[in-house]
Amino acid sequence: MIPFSVLDLSPIIAGGDAARALANTLDLARHAERLGYRRYWLAEHHNMPGIASAATAVVIGHVAGGTSTIRVGSGGIMLPNHAPLVVAEQFGTLESLYPGRIDLGLGRAPGTDQTTARALRRYMAGADNFPQDVIELQGYFQPAAPGQAVRAVPGAGLKVPIWLLGSSLFSAQLAAMLGLPFAFASHFAPDHLEDALAIYRDRFQPSAQLERPYVMLGLNVFAAATDAEARRHFTSLQQAFVNLRSGRPGPLPPPVDSTEGLWSPMETAGLAHSLRYAIVGSPETVQRGLAAFIAEHQADEIMVTAQMFDHAARLRSFEIVAEARDRLAAAPSAACA
């Protein structure tokens, strides 16, 4: 069976705070490690009242220091917000502290609104320079050459795997050209999934890091004892998603028993479209959904995410997913059904 991993936004719930969110993140990471998930990634977002992982490299250090075997990384660092040298130093430091366990996923979106992006960047050409910045960043991880004027210390000579993240054809093309693993944001922006995967696989050029294409797909999975219970937990993400798209980001709302009347027909259609790959249900429903998704898209790895209001329910959801993963591994034909 293919590996499963975790994407965590360190959700700040309504009535909670960042301290609680970050404590829950470490607890979930330890839980995921025990359950055999391969990696645990944190995402960079800014000016978001419901997300505590803005200082992503700091949170990665917090999680890596509190775990022992699971890989920890970024899903991702929004490279246009940072100088490549700074990112190389940060992740070189993390790799020096936790050798062999650090991943560096890179995105080209700001991870915020345009006003906040200006406060972060001071200049707005960052996204246009993304390919050059990725190449520059790769260079800082190469062994330092004699007389090299600028080097990353720590960083130079360290093997920190770089991933490209995306929801567009641009990222797929760049990942293929550079021979990097590719993570697609099918958990919230699935429109170009098939075309992006085809381009990445068809145009992939082997590199020193990677010999053949490697695709990881993001997937919302909300698992519970029953379909009804899982659907109720899923309403927290649905509410947060509509609030964000409406320009009203806030803490993760508590679940509701019914969403009838909460949203306009356009908002409801937008939710169904953007979250159409979400798997929500009982253990049996989740196992069937995972098998179908993996068979359809031929993913090399699945990155599961679940923004749940109730932390205990979230822990149980990841347990159910791991159990489904193990059952699929025991019956390989089920994963190809």
Write the layout of secondary structure elements.
Elements (H helix, E strand, L loop, with lengths): L3 E5 L9 H17 L4 E4 L13 H10 L5 E8 L5 H14 L4 E6 L6 H8 L8 H11 L21 E5 L2 H10 L3 E3 L8 H11 L11 E9 L3 H19 L19 H10 L4 E3 L1 H15 L3 E5 L5 H20 L7
Parallel strand pairs: 1-2, 1-9, 2-3, 3-4, 4-5, 5-6, 6-7, 7-8, 7-9
Termini distance? 13 Å
Residue share in helices?
40-55%
Tell me the radius of gyration.
19 Å
Principal-axes geometry comes out as globular
Number of helices: 11
* H/E series: EHEHEHEHHEHEHEHHEHEH
Can you give the mean pLDDT? 94
Can you walk through the features of this model?
With 337 residues, the protein is α/β, with parallel strands linked by helices. Helix content is 43%, strand content 14%. It contains eleven helices and nine strands. An eight-stranded parallel barrel has the order 1-2-3-4-5-6-7-9, surrounded by eight helices. Helix 7 links the parallel strand 6 (182-184) and strand 7 (215-223). Helix 3 (84-97) crosses helix 5 (130-140) and helix 6 runs parallel beside helix 7. It is globular.
